[in-house]
Amino acid sequence: MSLETVSPKWKVKKWFISLTFDKLKKKMSEKEREKFEEKSKAVLQKIVERRKELGFSQSGLAIKINMSFSGYFKVETGKTKLDTFRLLLILDTLEISPKEFFKDFK
Fold first, then answer.
1. Which residues contact 81 (CB under 8 A, 6 or more apart)?
2. CATH top-level class of 36-106
3. Neighbouring C-alpha atoms within 13 Å toward the C-beta of 79
4. Backbone dihedral region of 24: left (phi > 0), alpha (psi from -120 to 50 degrees) or beta?
5. Gyration radius (Cα) of the chain, Å
6. What are the pLDDT digits (tens) for 25-79?
7. pLDDT given at position 22
8. In which element (H, E) is residue 54 found?
9. Which of 23, 52, 39, 10 is CA-nearest to residue 106?
10. What pLDDT score does 33 carry?
11. Helix, strand, coil % (nearest 5) of the chain?
12. How far are the Cα atoms of 1, 4, 13, 19, 29 from residue 82, in angstroms, in the given order?
């Protein structure tokens, strides 16, 4: 589906969802935001530890998951958000199930 064929109704819904998400982020207290940032950093740190445990370099893992080195570096350092698809791909490459990976997270 090309962008031209997207109905104006869908564009409005997409805009509304984006606006609602932005409002939600603004309503989060600083403490709540910090809590989620800490959890996010913990997830990334656990990925780094597992990568090193298996002897992968950043560039080696990037190649295995079909990413550029700079793209993977940005994900691992938190400069780019890690989406669910890419997280699952990384976990699969690092030979760890999501259940096992998140078992110590609360």
1. 75
2. mainly alpha
3. 6
4. alpha
5. 17
6. 666 777 888 888 899 999 999 999 999 999 999 999 999 999 999 999 999 999 9
7. 58
8. none
9. 39
10. 81
11. 70, 0, 30
12. 25, 29, 24, 21, 22
**Tokens 């998400």 -> residue:** 21
Token pair recorded at residue 101: 């990976």
- Per-residue exposure over 63-95, b if at least 16 CB sit within 10 Å of its own CB, e if not: eeeebeeeebeebbeeeeebeeebeeebbebbe
Which amino acid is present at 21?
Answer: F
> Phi first, then psi: what are they for 77, rounded to 5°?
-95, 0
Tokens representing 75? Answer: 């994900």
